[in-house]
Amino acid sequence: MNKSVQMLHRIINLTVRDVRFPTSLEQHGSDAMHTDPDYSAAYVVLDTDSGLQGFGLTFTLGKGTEIVVCAVNALAGLVVGRSLEDIVSNFRGFYRLLTSDGQMRWLGPEKGVIHLATAAVLNAVWDLWARAEGKPLWKLLVDMDPKQIVSCVDFRYITDVLTEEEALDILMKAQEGKQHREDQMLNEGYPAYTTSCAWLGYSDQQLKQLCTDALKSGWSRFKVKVGADLEDDIRRCRLIREMIGPNNTLMIDANQRWDVAEAISWVSRLAEVKPLWIEEPTSPDDILGHAAISKALAPLGIGVATGEQCHNRVMFKQLLQASALQFVQIDSCRLGSVNENLAVLLMAHKFQVPVCPHAGGVGLCELVQHLILFDYICVSASLSNRMCEYVDHLHQHFTCPAVIQNAHYMPPKDPGYSCEMLESSVKSHQFPDGDIWKQHMKK
Amino acid sequence: MNKSVQMLHRIINLTVRDVRFPTSLEQHGSDAMHTDPDYSAAYVVLDTDSGLQGFGLTFTLGKGTEIVVCAVNALAGLVVGRSLEDIVSNFRGFYRLLTSDGQMRWLGPEKGVIHLATAAVLNAVWDLWARAEGKPLWKLLVDMDPKQIVSCVDFRYITDVLTEEEALDILMKAQEGKQHREDQMLNEGYPAYTTSCAWLGYSDQQLKQLCTDALKSGWSRFKVKVGADLEDDIRRCRLIREMIGPNNTLMIDANQRWDVAEAISWVSRLAEVKPLWIEEPTSPDDILGHAAISKALAPLGIGVATGEQCHNRVMFKQLLQASALQFVQIDSCRLGSVNENLAVLLMAHKFQVPVCPHAGGVGLCELVQHLILFDYICVSASLSNRMCEYVDHLHQHFTCPAVIQNAHYMPPKDPGYSCEMLESSVKSHQFPDGDIWKQHMKK
Known about the structure:
Keywords (chains A, B): Lyase, Magnesium, Metal-binding
Number of strands of chain A: 12
Structural class of chain A: alpha/beta
InterPro entries (chains A, B): Enolase-like_C_sf (IPR036849), Enolase-like_N (IPR029017), Enolase_C-like (IPR029065), L-fuconate_dehydratase (IPR034610), Mandel_Rmase/mucon_lact_enz_CS (IPR018110), Mandelate_racemase_C (IPR013342), Mandelate_racemase_N_dom (IPR013341), RHMD-like (IPR046945)
CATH superfamily of the largest domain in chain A: Enolase-like C-terminal domain
Family (chains A, B): Belongs to the mandelate racemase/muconate lactonizing enzyme family. ENOSF1 subfamily.
Oligomer: homodimer
Distance between the termini of chain A: 54 Å
Strand order of the largest sheet of chain A: 5-6-7-8-9
Shape of chain A: globular
Enzyme class (chains A, B): lyase
Strand content of chain A: 5-15%
């Protein structure tokens, strides 16, 4: 550990704000289950006695963000007063402290509002750590000793699939070629796909224009929202497939719209457009349902992807055990921050299932790019069937927005976890008192 | 529908309060994962234009109750302004409205804080309905037409196991002998077991005295908390088995303390005291883990029970599909009220797995007794291997507390869902401003 962490950085204050963007006005982000999202965040700032700050967030869809803010405040007492050094010297213990409080765990455990709040707080702690080390988060992870990586993970409830020793073994084996892969990422970036072309609320004309523009910018992987109306889906998917041609990649996303049998029959009808995966075909809780769908769609060459609402490592463990998914979609704000995502990356590697992170929303691209860079450099060592979601919205509100070049995420260079927002953006979008909302409510 | 519902009862106000009882002071409710619970509730009151009120709650463990209160307030806008008649004429639709709001479902969906809040609100709506009909809730359900029962259930995500037609068929078949079973319940009550004798924080002397007293009062089924220390568990379980003799029933409860392999080895060591079930051996999310534990313990004659933290019908569906539990422990405040519990009772019946509700806490006995009476009279028609938990705490704070006679729950006779609290109790236990807490904080 270098000098800056030895300076301790005692956390003396935690603030959390309810920041909302009125995205529903233009149907950005609309899907079969979330028809009018206002992309939002519970945004956390940690102040330390050294003056260094940590920034973190969890993503939400508008209404109810105030509940997550309330939950962050409930967790604040476990954070304020501690030093960064205290926390990271026993990060597993700190994770356990936040997720297993004898009174608050009843509200989860490790799921829903309380876990979203945990993610926001821990994201800020990881940001603080990376800043203290003067590195972007992915580089902090890449430079860490495998033993220290493993010491950040709570293996409770997953030892039947992954023990600490196995995790260490995976990380040790992947040391080979690490430097080469890091250099490769710095040169080429990590492959991305776009969801910006085909939200459910967009018109056909919008789809066409957006596809044309995306192809011109070098995109070759496209995701389409489906699930509201079958005939409409067929028309829209054909249109996109026609636009992008047979050699580019198409994925479809139902956002949990179907029951198991309906998912199988509906997606079978869409097989003609050759989607690589169907994302979130049914309830995020239905492990056995996803397994049944995976089995039924395998002969059609369509995989199942899920994860953005998979609430913790125990659920991912079972999705992997049951061969219920062929693409693991980690989320930087749903799981318990880097700590829990490390567990999922390691389990996915054990089962040899590719990780294709969920992003978009607000800040999700900025955050999750760090995790997938680490996955490639230090865990999976493969780009086969792998790509990270990208959505071209709201990046202008961040101090270090994600950088896309030729449809690849370019590794961030600034210290931290890339989710510091511009103070002016936070102020104007604070709910309900920011200028944007005051104007909006007047209408 | 009788005249009182035709009066409409428009809901004109919803209030929610944070009510906490300092139970941690005497180690009541202590277990291997929740060492210091303060039994608490987010307590909801609905006011209508007719003057009729509805009372509901969800149970919590102290800290964080304010988060659930915040979530109830977020849901209030979907409730206030509607009439009871509107709601119950399309109760499935109303359930869907509360659980599938396009922005708020991101916070769950149907799990954690937002689902606990949904339970509190819907419990109050059911209370209001039963009061409007002048019946205790169990009797409202028992007198309902099977078609109307089914119309209260959201079958989304469970049709691969239970369709609306199958549910109707189950209810129709159970019409036979219904009157006899109702009379039987009114005479004998529903069998209960006690958890009051053996909380983890109690001394051996306390255990002995409480067992002696319970045996004298007619109790024959006893649950013991385990999981903190194996040698301690062996000593305590032997002591209780000795006290109650070989013919009474003993259950053990680990409150999620173990990983899968540890659960199997630990419980195997306790097989000598012949427990009927091991409750919550591991993470409530681990369906496949529970299945592995069930399989390993079956040769020892020990079943697996779980449910108090099983967060929705999709999880119960899978626990049943995977033969992961031998006792279904529904909870009146974790699931989405009566609506979702009906789905679970019907699925459990289809799989012929007995339902043994979770109770205790504050108000849980009062609420869940209604559901298990309905289960016996209208669904399962069996008492074999069935019993409802009872804990002898905090009943004095309710206007119509649960009545136990000879270790049986006697069917409530007052209209409603039995969770109206004494206003004096609410006032003095409100957090943080009630007298009890003001005194407590001074110390």
